[in-house]
Design a protein that fits this description.
Order of helices and strands: EEEEEHHEHEEHEEHEHHEHEHHEHHEHEE
GO cellular component, one term: cytosol
Protein name: Guanine deaminase
GO molecular function: guanine deaminase activity; zinc ion binding
CATH architecture of the largest domain: Alpha-Beta Barrel
Helix content: 25-40%
CATH topology of the largest domain: TIM Barrel
Radius of gyration: 21 Å
Organism: Selenomonas ruminantium
Catalytic activity: guanine + H2O + H(+) = xanthine + NH4(+)
Strand order of the largest sheet: 3-2-1-4-15-16-17
């Protein structure tokens, strides 16, 4: 069974085809053929008669999570420096840790632990910042590929206003980035993404070159946007000719010209929100990180109402866990806090937050994150306690999101193939 990617899955199915509702099937059936979902139904379909059945009766089955912003090298510093705000935290911790990845052996020590924990937490798709170091970034990609999970990985670019050990020579950085793109652009699961760290750490020449690479290879872009007031003021000083922080990225072809992820997006004017919506740029909400570094409360409801594509990210190590249900709950809590002073910003419903952590993020990769015909069979099988068995499937999910842990995730599948099985 575990070596096949065609089977019938039987159990309690739940997913969100749109953000306003769950679809749930108690004792439902999902047919997977060659890693793709071909049927979802309340009864076993005749087309499944010749396929093996994976019986998960009493288990809760949901799409895998999409973590759309995280820093793999910061795995080792999770929970450290949480008394600082962003720029001081970067200087005091992150920019001390990331130079260690100049040593490939250090990457071989840390990255397997990171990937194992990420997948154990149920993440099947992710958008990852590595470091400026090409060899260590390749090592991370190799580990992800061997694990069989889906990811966009960025070799980070930094050529100014950075620690000496993290300051690249511009031309060499662009050359290394192009080589990285060419090496990974055709991999079925692990692919490259252009990754300027953020505007203060890259020169105009670097951004010009990265924009050209994004256009040449039609690869996506990821970076940070309007996370912290001090960061925003620094961008204004560095690029006074640009109207907004996002205008800098846009001027260099790094803001929606190819699919684009911008993390945080906390301190945006209505005009900036409208620009993001118009350009189809994704805003990655990182609620735990935003709270830990006292960066602010993202106006999630305002952005959704404006038509911005919003997804969720753990943002480790400023975020303190890779377990995405934690981010689902935090996103709901932040929306409730905002609604106290902004009653027009109605709080997120669980279906909405779950959608952001599954289908909304998964669609950045293609057809994953939902149980729909033709979509990739990326899913989790989770334990349901005996005392919850009589509850509805919706209530079982509520209990898992708010009260469950990674230990409740028994198996993780990507394209119909197992990634993790903790209970042999």
């Amino acid at each position: 069974m575990e070596n096949q990617d065609s089977f019938v899955l039987h159990g309690n199915l739940i997913y969100t085809p749109d953000r306003n509702k769950f679809i749930s099937l108690k004792d439902g059936y999902m047919v997977v053929e060659k890693g793709t979902i071909t049927s979802v139904s309340a009864e076993k379909p005749a087309m499944a008669d010749n396929l093996p059945v994976k019986d998960c009766q009493g288990k809760l089955i949901m799409p895998g999570f999409a973590d759309m912003h995280l820093h793999a090298p910061q795995y080792i510093q999770i929970g450290m420096g949480m008394d600082y705000k962003l720029l001081d935290w970067l200087d005091g911790y992150t920019f001390q840790e990331e130079p260690k990845f100049a040593d490939p052996n250090y990457a071989r020590k840390i990255y397997p632990r990171f990937v194992d924990e990420m997948t154990a937490c149920g993440t099947t798709s992710s958008a990852i910042f590595a470091t400026i170091h090409s060899e260590s970034t390749d090592i991370l990609c190799d580990i992800l590929a061997q694990k069989g999970v889906r990811a966009y990985v960025g070799k980070v670019n930094m050529d100014t206003n950075s620690a000496p050990a993290l300051t690249e020579e511009t031309a060499k950085s662009l050359q290394d980035t192009e080589a990285f793109i060419e090496k990974w652009q055709n991999h079925p699961l692990v692919r490259p993404i252009i990754t300027p760290r953020f505007v203060p750490s890259v020169t105009a020449d670097m951004m010009t070159g990265l924009g050209k690479l994004a256009e040449k290879y039609q690869v996506p872009v990821q970076s940070h946007l309007s996370e912290n007031p001090g960061e925003i003021e620094l961008v204004k000083k560095l690029f006074p000719q640009d109207q907004y922080y996002m205008s800098v990225y846009d001027r260099f072809g790094l803001f929606g010209q190819t699919p684009t992820l911008m993390a945080h997006c906390i301190h945006l004017s209505d005009a900036e929100i409208a620009i993001m919506a118009d350009k189809g740029v994704y805003a990655v909400h990182c609620p735990a990180s935003n709270l830990n570094l006292a960066s602010g409360l993202m106006p999630m409801r305002k952005m959704l109402n404006a038509g911005v594509k919003v997804v969720l990210g753990s943002d480790i190590g400023a975020g303190h866990t890779l377990y995405m249900p934690h981010e689902i709950v935090r996103a709901i809590e932040v929306s409730k806090i905002r609604s106290i002073e902004n009653p027009e910003e109605t709080p997120l419903k669980l279906s909405e937050a779950f959608y952001l952590a599954t289908k909304a993020g998964g669609e950045f990769f293609g057809q994953t994150g939902s149980f729909e015909i033709g979509w990739s069979a990326d899913f989790l099988i989770t334990d349901v306690p005996e005392y919850q068995q009589e509850r509805s499937v919706d209530e079982q999910l509520q209990n898992f999101i708010y009260h469950g842990t990674a230990q409740d995730i028994q198996e993780v599948y990507v394209q119909g193939r197992p990634v993790k099985n903790t209970r042999k």
